[in-house]
Amino acid sequence: MSGHTERLSVPWWLWLPSLLVGAVLAAQVGLGAAGPRGWVAYPVVLTLVAVGLWRLGRIRISVTQDEFLVDDARLPLRHVAQAIPLDAATKRELLGPSADPMAFVIQRPWVPGAVQVVLDDPDDVTPYWVISSRRPEDLARALRRVG
After folding, report:
1. Half-sphere exposure of 130 toward its Cβ, with a 13 Å CA cutoff?
2. Cα–Cα distance between 127 and 129 in angstroms, integer?
3. For labelling alongside 82, which of 68, 105, 110, 122 has CA 20 to 30 A away?
4. For the residues 51-64, what does the mean pLDDT come to?
């Protein structure tokens, strides 16, 4: 049973400028080679850009019956003390001036919202997790309901 699932994929509007920058970079690399060798940079660089964007957007977040899963990190729900939805300004404050260096953070700049998950685990030095979320209220609600 899953209480919440989402993927922090890269939005479509970020792909176009990224591939454009990749094409300009490939053109610069290809200028040094004459003929067909100059075109080899395009498939190589554009493939690297596409793979990089795909990897940036592969983060999966889910709340199961007994765990909070963020990519390959797992948090047993018995250690969740609080789940607080954050808007963009609060997220910026929590990741900037008010940041705790021991916090676990999965942050994507194109996702405005986040959830702060305060931990209650005496064996863990991590005070809280800050996880980007497109639906922070839903994620916090799922963590509170199941936890």
Report:
1. 24
2. 7
3. 110
4. 92
In the block, tokens 């997790």 appear at 129
- State whether residue 98 is helix, strand or coil: coil
One-letter identity of residue 21: V
CA distances to 9, 81, 145 from 78, rounded to whole Å, are 28, 8, 12
Q: Give me 103's structure tokens.
A: 């916090």
Distance CA 79, CA 45 (A): 44
Report pLDDT digits (tens) over 85-114. 999 999 999 999 889 999 999 999 999 999
Q: Do 91 and 114 contact (CB within 8 A), yes or no? A: yes
CA distance 17 to 49: 11
Query: Please, what's the largest Cα pairwise distance for the chain?
Result: 64
- Return the sign of the alpha-carbon dihedral for residues 88, 89, 90, 91: positive
Look at residues 56, 25, 61 and name the one whose alpha carbon lies nearest to residue 42.
25
Q: Which amino acid appears at position 144 of this protein? A: R
Distance CA 142, CA 87 (A): 17
Which residue reads 């200028």 in tokens?
31
pLDDT at residue number 31: 82
Which pTM does this prediction carry?
0.81
